[in-house]
Specification:
300 residues; alpha+beta; Creatine Amidinohydrolase; Arc Repressor Mutant, subunit A; 2 domains; four-stranded antiparallel β-sheet; 6 helices; 32% helix; 26% strand; binds manganese (II) ion
């Protein structure tokens, strides 16, 4: 059921590259900086270190909890006093690791980040083979509430697989009755999301749509759409990508139409941005864990 040793070695390499890239990113993010510079820095660090981005670097600001990456030519900047989540992933031969950190330029929001990190630390210290995901959610929820904040109820961690970021099992951020369990040799991303005590503490799906994924490879007639699809299948398979990575695949003046064709034919799909329903700021921490008999190994 779990991964074999050879696969685990690929996860370890993936996580080692990601950890090094994340640590370099921590000091990089500044107020007033362009979001696209943060995304591109994170992705180029991953490539420099010998990895491949498993998904576009997500830079999600204030009430945006997840799933924003810069589209090509993005002019948005990191606002003054904002809370910024940077979420990054690496794949080595398809073996995905996933990590995130929060920087807050607002001292009042810094304690939310501490709560997210503490919840994650408690999971790392207590998780083991055969623990139910509902109990893991309970550890996260009580840690966050003990800090005086709320967990986001409809965002979860997830099992990861080869070329799969969400491999089927969710790890809730609240206590649930779910009896599905984690097992030795399986790999999970655990990601507590924290918001303010007066928040609704749910996220809604919203535009813009800046992250995409292949859903089915069917044939397309138009030449440029076909060329674009081939590039996506070869380079990203079932992993998410951004239009920033598709520059120069087809002539620039043909790109928009070819891309629209793939969306229209439902060959690719888009991820909406997740935004806290009451527009309260959100903090996140995330590590990828290899489950062991009596504990876990932090891969990132
Ligand atoms: Mn992530
Ligand atoms: Mn994740």
């Amino acid at each position: 059921m779990g991964f074999d040793l050879e696969e685990i070695e690929k996860f370890r390499l993936s996580g080692k590259i990601l950890c090094a890239a994340r640590e370099e990113m921590r000091g990089f993010v500044k107020e007033g900086m362009q979001v696209i510079d943060v995304c591109e820095k994170a992705e180029s660090l991953i490539r420099e270190k010998g990895g491949f981005p498993a998904f576009p670097c997500n830079v999600s600001i204030n009430e945006v909890a997840a799933h924003y990456t810069s589209p090509p030519g993005d002019k948005s900047v990191i606002p003054i006093s904002s809370t910024v989540k940077v979420d990054m992933g690496v794949q080595i031969d398809g073996y995905v690791t996933d990590t995130a950190f929060t920087v807050s330029f607002n001292s009042e929001c810094r304690s939310m980040t501490a709560a997210a990190e503490h919840a994650l630390k408690l999971v790392i210290e207590n998780i083991h083979n055969d623990m139910s995901v509902g109990r893991i959610g309970g550890i996260i929820e009580s840690a966050i509430r003990n800090h005086g904040f709320k967990p986001i109820v409809n965002l979860t961690g997830h099992s990861v697989g080869r070329y799969l970021i969400h491999a089927g099992t969710s790890i809730p951020n609240v206590a649930t009755l779910s009896t599905s369990k984690v097992h030795t040799g399986e790999v999970f991303a655990v990601e507590p999301f924290v918001t303010q005590p007066d928040a609704i503490a749910r996220v809604d799906d919203k535009p813009p749509y800046t992250i995409f994924r292949l859903i089915r490879a069917k044939s397309v007639k138009t030449g440029y759409a076909k060329q674009l699809l081939k590039h996506i299948e070869t380079n990203y398979r079932t992993l998410p990508f951004t239009e920033r990575w598709l520059k120069d695949v087809v002539p620039q003046n043909q790109h928009a139409e070819a891309f629209k064709e793939l969306l229209k034919q439902k060959i690719i799909t888009s991820y909406p941005v997740f935004s806290e329903a009451s527009k309260r700021p959100v903090a996140q921490a995330e590590h990828t864990l290899l489950i062991k008999e009596d504990g876990c190994e932090v891969l990132t």
